[in-house]
Amino acid sequence: MPSLPRWFTARSAGTQTFLVLAVLFALAETATRVHQRMKFGELQTAVPRHLVDFYRFYRVNPAYRSARVRVNSAGFRDDRELPRAKPADEVRIFVTGGSTVWGEDGVGDSTVALISNTQTIAAHLESVLQAEAKRRGAPVTIRVVNAGTVGYVLHQCLTLFDDVIAEYQPDAVVALDGHNDLDALQLGLPPFSHRNDAAFVREMNRPNLFDVASQLLRYASTHSLLVRKASTRAREWLSARTLASPQWQARMSAPLADSSVAAWLDRYEATVLRYRASAEVSGAPVLFSVQNELAGESRKPLNAAERALKPTYAYYTNLHTAVRDRLVARMKAIESARGLWFTDVTDAFAQDTAQSYIDYTHLSDHGAAVIASRLATELARAVFCESRTHAIARCATGVKRAAGAAGAAGA
Fold first, then answer.
1. Taking Cα atoms as reference points, which of 337, 332, 293 lies closest to residue 316?
2. Residue 239's pLDDT is what?
3. What is the pLDDT of residue 44?
4. Phi, psi values for residue 145, rounded to 5°
5. pLDDT tens, residue by residue, 343-388
6. How far apart are the first and last CA of the chain?
7. Contacts of residue 407, Cβ cutoff 8 Å, sequence gap at least 6
8. H, E, C per residue of the chain
9. 222 burial type by CB count under 10 A (0-12 exposed, 13-18 middle, 19+ buried)
10. Tens digits of per-residue pLDDT, 103-145?
């Protein structure tokens, strides 16, 4: 048996252990990178999906990639780049919201539960509106941008609009929200805050040893693919365990005081009106809607997969029925009293027997297409200049008048 090198045996036991661990780590890191290269080629993967942002708490990482996800340099989920200078014949529509808009994967690894860039609400909305433009002979190109960010609440979407979207000359915006805001209500979060705000403020201003360790892990993750993958898997496991725990489910099903819901609705309304006012400055009307929820679904004939999923999220039932209904009712009241552009998609799946839900709120490719078709019905009236109330600003130009005339002729 060959003896160990003298340079190794001359070291202390502690140093020898460190060297062995370093060599093993280097071998594991190399194997991870080789496997990644063999599986994905040049595609950058396993970089963090989100980066810290001091205005929105976090934002989409433009470098994020996966087997089904591409993000452009502006931070939007899209295979195509988005130039700030908009072509003269282009109509740009941005869809903001949380993970449902982003196109989050669902439960399981079946093809139905795995969502690619072409299977999001924004992608389907662009296809439907572009087909309608072609049918009408309208001389426009429709570009719909997926501006969804996992976990975002409405006030983060507003900040995203002010900080980023407004610079890209939007013609219209769709704000599809509700789930994360309802979660914030149930968790008792302070107004206009995120559930991780307290930890972030502490980490930046009064860090403890846990925060120091967290920063060291973040540093290691930026340099090691092995650490990135391992830490990501650990977070996913921990998140799944948390959501399945009796403590979490009890917290999410606890009755809410009527006064708390009323105050929350007032704040939500204020954010809606701020969002509309901010977008109006940019000349872009906002179409608001409240996303659908499996636990509160009463219109859709559920298929076998959805029936199996629904009991898993029974703890969401009250939040996604009674409280969501109050949110929809408030949005309709604002529509009536203040001319808000709102569409209720509660019954969007009423005649749909295919699988639309892939977990508590996220949608399959089919479900995203159904919601996109419903939204397109409203948006088409604005895009093709048939609505005096919500028509896009470009309808005032000669080009858009011609588009409207072409649409009328083809109707």
1. 293
2. 85
3. 57
4. -105, 130
5. 999 999 999 999 999 999 999 999 999 999 999 999 999 999 988 8
6. 87
7. 136, 137, 138, 384, 385, 386
8. CCCCCHHHHCCCHHHHHHHHHHHHHHHHHHHHHHHHHHHHCCCCCCCCCEEEECCCEEEECCCCECCCCEECCCCCECCCCCCCCCCCCEEEEEEEECHHHHCCCCCCCCHHHCCCHHHCHHHHHHHHHHHHHHHHCCCCEEEEEEEECCCCCHHHHHHHHHHCHHHHCCCEEEEEECHHHHHHHHCCCCCCCCCCHHHHHHHHHCCCHHHHHHHHHHHHHHHCHHHHHHHHHHHHHHHHHHHHCHHHHHHHHCCCCHHHHHHHHHHHHHHHHHHHHHHHHCCCCEEEEECCCCCCCCCCCCCHHHHHHHHHHHHHHHHHHHHHHHHHHHHHHHHHHHCCCECCCCCCCCCCCCCCECCCCCECHHHHHHHHHHHHHHHHHHHCCCCCCCCCHHHHCHHHHHHHHHHHHHC
9. exposed
10. 999 987 678 999 999 999 999 999 999 999 999 999 999 999 9
Q: What is the mean pLDDT of each run of 10 residues along the chain (411 residues)?
A: 61 76 92 83 72 88 90 96 95 98 87 95 98 94 97 96 97 97 93 79 88 88 87 86 91 95 97 97 96 95 95 94 97 98 97 95 97 97 89 68 40 33
- Which residue type, as a one-letter code, is found at position 5? P
